[in-house]
Design the sequence.
């Protein structure tokens, strides 16, 4: 339902459309992450949201005449647009894929990519596409900015790399009367192809965590919440099948609320929620399996004890104990350098 | 001597194996999804996962960087499929970069059988 209202709003909202000669900026989607950027940009620019020019039926055949036709359609759409701002490219969204290619071919359009998520991976597979197509790449922190600059050099890309501060959806308002440990698991690969490791191995690790959380809750009286994946269902994530049998709480779809009130944050991937927790100043621990996609050394240095690489999942028990015993060693705000302006903003 | 049959599972229903589960056949289950693990656990059925043979990071990705997002997703899917199916004979690495560990995985499987 939320998606329906968003798509209806996007179809009908255009800011400043009657003001001639203002630069036209197209945003890929209207969501809470870009809302403040849209509001600010609307003061001096004409704002559009990307229309879906075609049925989203194409999936496999990137070389077909149809897909080339879609790219041509978007190239035509972008001919009088100055910027195309995009923060993610869902894997089944053929319209957006064609729009990116169309904008790339449009001579007067600059593509502005706002890095949406974080992985910390040393494997650049997620960034290579944007190094090729984007004119501006906005990283969310200084370490990532330097990494992208290095990649741009390595892959001979002209992209302009800049830094921004990602919008946080909540403030940390820790419940002082309780002490809750929040565990936010990463997605399975069947949901999202983002590297990491096999779903079956991940499940094996999670079975262990369920047992350990049961122990901590029942025997040690710890308050633990497992934040269920938004895409959870029994076919994807068996952890969601019988949550009533756990001694800890299993809650789906309330991540931001849970994050804002927890006392400790646990996760199994260097992910956007991990950066969110660190940004908020929450004591955070990411236990990361050694066999996963390797994490950049600079990321590991920056987060110190908050990134714990394990070989055997049993090692995680002790590290969780360390977090609870000396939480102040696990507070690592994300480091920002100078925040850059967006290319449509006037420099002072 | 019992005949050994390797069964790759995305979803486990014991009824599917009633005919095979007689005295002459030993079933070796390899779970390919979390739900298959869960179901096999529930039936106390021993099983293995692909990581017992070789890991996705060992398989690696080819060095020739794919030029488009389409191909990137495709590559990821191929990589994942190859991972799941890395023990099957008919799998071919579409980018021509078959990793020796792929064969290593099969060798380990042979030891099992």
Sequence:
């Amino acid at each position: 339902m939320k998606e329906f209202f968003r798509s209806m709003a996007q179809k009908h909202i255009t800011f400043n459309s009657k003001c001639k000669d203002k630069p036209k900026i197209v945003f890929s989607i209207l969501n809470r992450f870009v809302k403040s950027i849209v509001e600010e940009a609307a003061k001096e620019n004409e704002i559009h949201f990307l229309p879906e020019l075609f049925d989203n039926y194409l999936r496999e055949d990137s070389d077909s005449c149809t897909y080339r036709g879609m790219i041509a359609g978007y190239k035509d759409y972008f001919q009088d647009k100055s910027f195309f701002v995009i923060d993610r490219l869902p894997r089944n969204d053929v319209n957006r894929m064609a729009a990116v290619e169309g904008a790339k071919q449009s001579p007067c359009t600059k593509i502005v990519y706002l890095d949406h998520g974080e992985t910390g991976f040393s494997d650049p597979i997620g960034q290579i596409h944007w190094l090729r197509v984007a004119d501006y790449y906005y990283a969310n922190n200084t370490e990532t900015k330097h990494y992208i600059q290095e990649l741009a050099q390595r892959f001979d890309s002209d992209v302009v790399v800049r830094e921004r501060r990602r919008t946080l959806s909540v403030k940390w308002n820790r419940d002082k009367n309780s002490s809750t440990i929040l565990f936010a698991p990463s997605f399975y690969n069947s949901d999202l192809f983002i590297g990491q490791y096999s779903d079956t191995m991940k499940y094996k690790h999670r079975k262990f965590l369920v047992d350990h959380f049961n122990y901590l809750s029942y025997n040690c009286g710890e308050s633990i919440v497992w934040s269920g994946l938004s895409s959870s269902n029994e076919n994807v994530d068996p952890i969601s099948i019988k949550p009533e049998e756990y001694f800890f709480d299993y809650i789906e779809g309330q991540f931001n609320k849970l994050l804002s009130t927890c006392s400790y944050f646990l996760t199994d991937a260097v992910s956007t929620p991990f950066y969110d927790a660190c940004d908020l100043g929450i004591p955070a621990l990411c236990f990361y399996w050694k066999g996963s996609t390797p994490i950049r050394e600079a990321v590991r240095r920056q987060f110190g004890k908050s990134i714990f690489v394990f070989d055997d999942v049993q090692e995680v028990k002790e590290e969780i104990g360390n977090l609870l015993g000396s939480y102040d060693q696990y507070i690592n705000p994300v480091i920002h350098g100078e925040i850059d302006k967006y290319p449509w903003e006037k420099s002072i | 001597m019992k005949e050994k049959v390797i069964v790759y599972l995305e979803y486990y229903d014991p009824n599917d194996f009633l005919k095979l589960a007689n005295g002459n056949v030993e079933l070796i289950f390899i779970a390919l999804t979390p739900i298959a693990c869960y179901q096999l656990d529930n039936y106390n059925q021993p099983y293995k996962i692909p990581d017992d043979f070789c890991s996705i990071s060992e398989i690696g990705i080819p060095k020739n960087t794919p030029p488009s997002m389409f191909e990137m997703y495709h590559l990821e899917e191929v990589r994942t499929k190859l991972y799941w199916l890395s023990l099957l004979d008919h799998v071919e690495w579409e980018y021509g970069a078959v990793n020796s560990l792929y064969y290593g995985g099969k060798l380990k499987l042979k030891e099992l059988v």
